[in-house]
Amino acid sequence: MSDTPEKKPDALWIESVYRPGYKVARSTLKTLGRILNGATADDAASPQAEPSAPGENAVALTQVPELNEVGGVARVETPDHTTIGVARVGRTSFVGFRLDHEQLAEVEVQFDEANGTLRISGEATPPEPPAA
After folding, report:
1. Which of 89, 86, 114 is nearest to 98 (CA)?
2. pTM, entire model
3. Which of 9, 84, 109, 112 has the smallest count of CB within 10 Å of its CB?
């Protein structure tokens, strides 16, 4: 018997804060971390998000060809100059993260399928739990 503690593999998936039941692959988080830490333009886009309504940031998917397919990632700068890493994790599902004190913090990203835009909240604040 060995005195060496058994190594347990790191979790491959991280639970989404904004989408209960959704999980984000650790490899996706690593990629988003790299592009938010200054990966080259070849690795990610940096379109300027256009506001769709007061207080909102939105970006048309046509501005971000890197997000045309599931698995795509891009760096998006919002009008308030917040840089967000966005990943397409499903046909109509997206996740977004920003750097918050050198840590990735999830932000809310909603896809408006009717007009093909992503609404991005630059705030890294989890939603309020539903009332009991």
Report:
1. 86
2. 0.72
3. 9
